[in-house]
Each structure stands twice: as structure tokens, then as C-alpha cells.
């Protein structure tokens, strides 16, 4: 069932609920329990109500078809999204107009005509003044029905408004749409809930003052009190639910923001909540823009460091980029995705940042390093870790340190700087170790020429489980077969 048909069904259900409560619930209770009627008169009045109800429904369906037309044109033909948007926002007010117009008049006028006709023929023996009382009661009941339908329609129309906004790129506006503030919603609703029962009670009391016995009067009075309590509770519940929904939605979205999920809320309100949700969406949009800018700056930061390292040592130009690529390929086959994969790539780009602190005489030496010089080179993971520590990385970026400090650890515990072994070596360190070793072996260095890919592959395979994590060697071999054997 498409969205528009769902709306038709929802409106039908709302109408039936509102009618049952207001017309056939409150209205019929007061008619048939306030008046003293014979069985024949009861049947006549029931018939009048049924015939008037059919006329009322026919008129309402005619007006409803006119009111719904802009929405039909949009959802069936994609026409005039602005008209559909304004119609959807106006639909609660249109519902009130239908109830106070064709609903009230379509029921009351035919009922009045038929009642007066029955009185003139002697089928009913009620005082003619009761027709006026019936009109007053009908207006009170229609007003109650209108309030119920207004709040129920306000909720039913929200999916339509959200769908209209999602289906068009136009800047939709509420020009000319009637807006009722929460202040007036509260004021009018409380006024109706307070006045309606009292007015109906006074009206029924005027009719009932000729009650024959005290027992009959108190039986009727008890029924009136029950109806008054029901109407008051129902009105309060409808009003509360109308106010509760946007508050719950806003709280839910604020909790998502707290957990790092930034989703704008659909705004299908036309009161103070509309301004509140627009403010929330502006906040979310600002956070997303700021995060995007921060991400661009962060990417630039990593690229600058990688370029700095490459510019310093022409023999290792492109090394950091290739290590980041190989590391990502291994990690993806290991099941990493999303933020974890992105953090690993950043860590790989920075894995040799500590070489900034190594003297050129050692780092760029054209020949084999002495033991002392090699010990100096081995300091670069610690230097890199210290540099990042001083940057005061936010908590979500601290895993970058793992790859920088621990990419020279060995799986058997004979690596540096901390001599960690097995799974005690952080995940990023174990992955980058494989990628770094392969690229180092297949790159030219001042003291040796690059190995062939096949030679480097064999060395990695032989070091499986001793120097490198066997699981990541296996994932690298899968990548190797795809990248270098095709």
C-alpha cells in the first residue's frame, strides 16, 4: 500500500474514532438518556440520525476529495510539490472546516427538517424548543470532534510532509498556511475540555429538570459525570500525545548526536516545534560541515607529513603511500571496514614520521649502517609516538599511535621498541609490519638494490609466525596473487 492510500485509511480510521467518541458516543448518550422517549420515538430518532449521517458522510467525502486533490496530483503525477506541501500542512485545519461545515450542517440541517416534519405529523411529542437545544448540543459535539480530529490529522499527515520534502529539491515554503501556536493549542484545548462538559451538563439538565423521580435523576447525573470524565481524559490524552511526539523525536536525535550520528530531523510541524527542529537541523548541519572541514585538514596534515618524508629521502619516495595501500588491502581482507579502515590508513601514512628525528648522516648514509647507526634508526618508532603524543590527539584518533610505535615489533617478541609478541602487538602494528617489510624489500636503498616481488614474497612466507602474524601474511598472499600475479 502506497503512502497516499495509507493516509486515506488513517483519515478514515481517525474519522470513525472521532465520530464514535463525539457523535455516536457523547451525542447519542445525552439524547437517549436525557430524553424520556417511547420505543417508537427512539426508533424514529435513530432513523433520523442514520439518514442525516448518510447525507453528512456524502457531503464530507465530496469536500474531502477537493481538499486531497493537490496531494493526489503530487503523489500520482509528481505535480506541484509546493501546493502539496502547503496542502499537507493545512490538512488539520481543513479537517476542522469539514467537521464544522459539511459534518455539522450536513447532519444538523437534515436532522432538523426531518424532526420538525415528524413533530408536525405527531410521530414525535417533544417540545419544539428541544430542536434548539439539539443545535446547541450539535455545535458543542462538533467542536469536540474537530479538536480530536485536528490533533489526530496533525500526526497522520507527518509522513506525507516528510515524503514530499524527500521527493523534491525545491525550497518548499509555508507561505499562506495557517499556523496555530502551542500557546493557542493549549489554551483552546483546555478551554474546550473545561467548558464542553459543563455546557453539555447544563444543557442536558435543562432538558432533564422535569425528571419524575429522584432516583432517575441521580442515575442520569451519574451517567453525565462518567461522560464528562471520559471527555476530559480523552481530550487531555490527545493533546499530550500531540506535544509528546516531537519532544520524543528530538530527544532520540539528540541521543544520536551524543553517539556521533548526525541526522537531520524531518520538519513536519507548523508551530514552535518547527522553529526548534529547524534550529536542531542547523546545528547538525553545522557540525557536519565542521567535521568535513576538519577531515579535510586532517587529510592534508597526513599528506604533508608523507610528502615531507618522501622529499627528505629520495630513495624512499612513495614508500608511505604504498605501505598505506598494502595495509588497507590486508585489513580489508581481515574484515576491517569503515572508521577502522580509515584509521589504519592514516596510521600507515604516519608510520615513519619518527624518521624526522634521525640525523641525515644516518638516515641518508650511502652504504651499510654500523650497529650504532642502526640502533639510531631503531629509535624512529619511539620518536614518532612521542611526536603524536605531543599533538594531543582526540580519543578516536589515538589508535594511530599503535601503528606508528609498533610496526617493527616481531610476532616472536624479538622486535623493537617494546619487544611485544603475538596478539600483545596492537592490531595496526601487526598489519603495517607486513606491508612495510614488503615495500622496504622491493624498493631501492643506498646500500642495496630492490628485491624482486617474488623474492620478497618468499621471505614473508618464511617469516610467517616468527617475524609476522601468520593471519596477515595469508591475507597479504591473497592480495599479492591478485595485484602482482595478474
Biggest sheet layout: none
Mean pLDDT across residues: 80
Count of extended strands: 0
Output the helix-strand order.
HHHHHHHHHHHHHHHHH
Q: What is the CA-CA span between the terminal residues? A: 51 Å
Gyration radius, in Å: 39 Å
Number of domains: 2
Low-pLDDT parts are: none
Give the helix proportion (percent range): over 70%
Structural class: mainly alpha
Strand percentage: under 5%
- Alpha plus pi helix count: 17
Principal-axis shape equals: rod-shaped
Walkthrough of the structure:
GO terms for molecular function: hydrolase activity. It comes from Bacillus selenitireducens (strain ATCC 700615 / DSM 15326 / MLS10). The chain crosses the membrane at residues 12-32, 44-64, 104-124, 130-151, 186-205, 217-240. Its main location: membrane. Residues 316-441 form the HD domain. With 486 residues, the protein is mainly alpha-helical. It folds into 2 domains: 3-258, no CATH class; 286-484, Hypothetical protein af1432 (Orthogonal Bundle), CATH 1.10.3210. Helix content is 74%, strand content 0%. The chain has 17 helices and no strands. It has helices at residues 3-34, 39-77, 81-121, 129-156, 158-167, 182-208, 214-258, 272-312, 319-333, 338-349, 360-363, 371-377, 380-390, 400-406, 427-441, 453-462, 470-484. α1 (3-34) packs antiparallel against α7 (214-258), α3 (81-121) packs antiparallel against α5 (158-167) and α13 (380-390) packs antiparallel against α14 (400-406). The longest helix is centred in the middle third of the chain and has 45 residues, at 214-258. The chain is rod-shaped, with a radius of gyration of 39 Å. The model has no long low-confidence stretch (mean pLDDT 80).
